[in-house]
Specification:
The chain is an all-alpha fold and 81 residues long. It has 3 helices and no strands. It has one domain.
């Protein structure tokens, strides 16, 4: 079933905000939501390629979103130099 559309936005925003705090990135609300959602989608895809299926519940998806958003921030910083 998953967490749904609105749940994904809430979890994505929270995950992006936490990741920006961890990575000390100065991002706004919309960037936090985008980073969290995109990070979760990308990391879920990568994990599925490795045959790892995180539960489609709030807490596991929050963790995946935080890690994914943190990776996106890290990659962005490396690309910018």
């Amino acid at each position: 079933m998953g967490i749904g559309f609105f749940g994904a936005i809430i979890v994505g925003g929270l995950a992006g905000w936490i990741a920006s705090m961890i990575m000390k990135a100065d991002t706004g609300v919309f960037a936090n939501v985008g980073l969290g959602i995109l990070g979760a989608v990308l990391l879920n895809g990568l994990l599925r390629l490795l045959s790892i299926y995180p539960a489609e519940a709030w807490i596991p998806q929050l963790v995946v979103g935080i890690v994914g958003a943190s990776l996106l921030i890290w990659i962005w910083r490396r690309m910018r130099g």
